[in-house]
Amino acid sequence: MGRLNIILVFVSLLWPATALVMAPQVQAQVKQEVSAASLAGSYDVRGRNPDGSAYSGALEIAVIDNVANFTWNVGNRVYKGQGSFVGNVLVVNWGNSAPVIYTIDLDGNLSGTWSNGQASERLTRK
Questions:
Q1: What is the mean pLDDT of residues 6-17?
Q2: What residues have CB less than 8 Å from 7, skipping those under 6 apart?
Q3: With pLDDT > 70 as the criterion, what percentage of the chain qualifies?
Q4: Three-class SS state of 22
Q5: DSSP 10
Q6: Residue 79 pLDDT
């Protein structure tokens, strides 16, 4: 067996153990940083519609009983929705057939998709 093969076998044996040791630390960090209550506040909204056109507006998130209540003001329209966490993903039902799916970015802002992934949105805390 050549030296490269020995190294590859060693790394392949070591890698799963390293992942198992690191996984709880990463999960604990994410769970501590993400809660519905930490999302309450005002946000700037910027996004792209399914047709590619841009939009912008404002959003208020109020949290009651660990449910995030969204009120978007985009153009001259108001949209409302309610969201809760499924794992580390925030799922917001807003009356459309597909919910908005948000992830929490490292900077505390939210990035999401809607219309079954055909549209996107970024929420930046004011």
A1: 38
A2: none
A3: 73
A4: helix
A5: H
A6: 96
Q: What is the pTM of this model?
A: 0.71
Q: How far apart are CA 110 and CA 44, in angstroms?
A: 10
- Show contacts of 31-37: CB within 8 Å, 24+ apart: 31/88, 33/104, 34/85, 34/88, 34/104, 35/66, 35/85, 36/63, 36/66, 36/67, 36/68, 36/83, 36/84, 36/85, 36/90, 37/63, 37/66
DSSP reduced 3-state for 87: coil
CA distances 5 to 12, 14, 42, 84, 121, Å, are 10, 14, 55, 48, 46
Please count the other Cβ atoms lying within 10 Å of the Cβ belonging to residue 35.
14
Task: Round the average pLDDT of the chain to a whole number and report it.
Answer: 79
Which CATH number fits the domain 36-125, given the four candidates 3.30.43.10, 2.30.30.40, 3.30.420.40, 2.40.128.120?
Answer: 2.40.128.120
Express each pLDDT in 56-78 by its tens digit: 999 999 999 889 999 999 999 99
pLDDT at residue 7 above 90?
no
